[in-house]
Structures are given as C-alpha cells and as structure tokens.
Amino acid sequence: MKTAAENRRYRRYRHRMEALVVVDGGQTHLAAEVLDASAFGARIRLGDDTELPDEFYMLFRHRIEQCRVVWRGKRTFGLVYED
Fold it and tell me: Cβ–Cβ contacts within 10 Å for residue 80, how many?
C-alpha cells in the first residue's frame, strides 16, 4: 500500500509559516499554520477546533489563494488551491 506522499502528483515541502484563513466573506479571520505546501495545495493546522468551511481564502507569504478542503483531521486540513 502506498503512503499519502507516494500518491501525490506534486511534492510538498515543509514550511512552518503563519497564515490567515479568511471566511464569511472576509468577516472572519482565523490564525493558521502552513505545515507543508506545493504549488497546488497545502496542509494547514488551526489553533483550535474551529469549523472550517469547504472553500475559503488563505493569506500567506505575500500571496492569497482560494482554497478547497480535500481532507479533514481534528485540527489539520489538506487543501487544494483553486484557480
């Protein structure tokens, strides 16, 4: 059986950087940490058990990405960037 890393089409790189998740049309901002990322997605961790919508914007490293959740853990989420 392949691991999740082996199933990925694009390699992810560890980052550990702060991010801001923007939901509710910009009315709510949630602190997050990007754990690893590729050109097409990321894995993030929220500081608490906040409910995260399926789609949102994320600001990090002087960029903004529209994101869609592809998997969920307790406080960890796998994202794909939407174009």
Answer: 16
For the question of whether the overall pTM of this predicted structure is more than 0.70, the answer is yes
Distance, in Å, from the CA atom of 33 to the CA atom of 7, rounded to the nearest integer, reads 23
Q: Which of 78, 79, 26, 77 is nearest to 49 (CA)?
A: 77
Both structure tokens of 31? 């602190």
Q: Report DSSP letters for 37-57, one per residue.
A: E-SSEEEEEESS-----SEEE
pLDDT of residue 7: 52
Residue 14 contacts residue 35 (beta carbons within 8 Å): yes
